Amino acid sequence: MNRFNLDDYEPVASRVQRFYDKHPNGSIICALVYDDGTRCVVQATVWRDINDPAPAAVDYAEELLTDRGVNATSRIENCSTSAIGRAISVASAGLGPSDWTKKPSREEMAKVQRRDNGDSGSDLASEKQVNYLRSLYKSRGRPAPATIALLDRHAATKLIDGLKGDTLTEDEERELLHAGRNDKLMGDEEPF
After folding, report:
1. Cα Rg, the chain, nearest whole Å
2. Which residue has the higher pLDDT, 107 or 121?
3. d(Cα 185, Cα 151) in Å, to the nearest integer?
């Protein structure tokens, strides 16, 4: 069941059109501020008038490489679209139909809806797997490692099976916790 109505969120294309209709001398510039080959962060900067001394808004979006869907081939472009939609929402607060409390675009909320319905388009562990792993660790009197949310589905399944059957050695558990995307996502570099 969805916790929100997609019709309450404005598509990015509509935000861009409305922005340029209201601000014909406006400017929107994107910059890729982080990309490790798996995770990218894009910054969008919006000026209501290109001659303004400071931008009207700056906002960011993040996307992960997936094995299917749009992020399998176009994660940076998708990330740019999200960042633009968010920055325009900030720059346009109080200036039109875009509601500041609905900063995410319709595209971003559709992604949330797909994830909630079990179709994330990602090979990352599902929310159900992550929550089950947390309960398994808790039942053993151990804190769940923060990295479990970064596991891929396959590593999460192996870890669940190993914990349920008490068949994992410490080394095997450590290896699973750092399997798949973990080593790429947990680099020392942070974009901010």
Report:
1. 20
2. 107
3. 10
98 with 132, same domain: the answer is no
Q: By C-alpha distance, which of 123, 125, 127 is closest to 65?
A: 123
Report if residue 150 sits inside a domain. Answer: yes
The Cα 101–Cα 122 span in angstroms is 27
The count of domains in the chain is 2
- With CA atoms as reference, report the closest residue to 134 among 152, 121, 147: 147
In tens, the pLDDT along 14-36 reads 888 989 999 999 999 999 999 99
Question: Using a CB cutoff of 8 Å and minimum separation of 24, what contacts does 113-116 make?
Answer: 113/2, 113/4, 113/6, 116/2, 116/3
Q: Is residue 20 part of a domain?
A: yes
Question: How remote is the C-alpha of 171 from its chain's centroid?
Answer: 31
**Could you read off the pLDDT of 161-177 as tens digits, one per residue?**
988 888 888 888 888 87
Q: Which structural domain range is residue 144 located in?
A: 127-185
* pTM score: 0.54
The answer, yes or no, to whether residue 40 has pLDDT greater than 50, is yes
Cβ(87)–Cβ(58) below 8 Å: yes
